[in-house]
Amino acid sequence: MRIAVAGTHRAGKSTLIDELSDLLPDYVTVEEPYHQLEEEGYAFAAPPSVDDFEAQLARSIADLDEAPRDVLFDRCPVDFIGYLLAHEDHDAFDLDVWLPRVRSVLRKLDLIVLVGIEQPDRIALSASEDEELRLSVDEQLKELLLTDAHALGVEVLEVEGSPRARAKQVLEHLERSLVP
Hints:
This is NadR/Ttd14 AAA domain-containing protein. The chain has helices spanning 13-23, 33-39, 50-65, 77-86, 95-106, 131-146, 163-178, and strands at 2-6, 28-30, 71-74, 111-115, 156-159. By secondary structure, it is α/β, with parallel strands linked by helices. The protein has a single domain (2-178), classed as 3-Layer(aba) Sandwich (Rossmann fold), CATH 3.40.50. Helix 1 crosses helix 7, helix 2 crosses helix 3 (50-65) and helix 3 (50-65) packs antiparallel against helix 4 (77-86).
């Protein structure tokens, strides 16, 4: 199966990917586009610009296009749409231009696991982190994925709890999906 783990920053995505990698040793893990681009020398603005998020969106689409079976993605195109819609310069982003490509590539995913911000929040943030952006992205992702406001048409599993509990929820979902 092709599984993407989505969520705002500092929500527990990478920790869940680590747990799932241990439990699904035959799966390949694809690092999030930010790190891929950074390793290639892409210079991100601080904070990232609309162009920076569009570059990550394009890389995420390319990653899905080239994906093998049995893969875990740290982020997917919907993550970057969430960031772009929450960005202070969101008017510079034309969602309608990207939607056909995103819908097409999302068909290659079997599941998006949404790691949302829990109440109370499990993640301690530093004073330098943008809590408002984090909350806005979380809200955008829930709108995009749970209400399917843009007809993305992908199966979504929202998880909660400890990293181990989240991984268990994913495994149980996979087991149910495999039952004829």
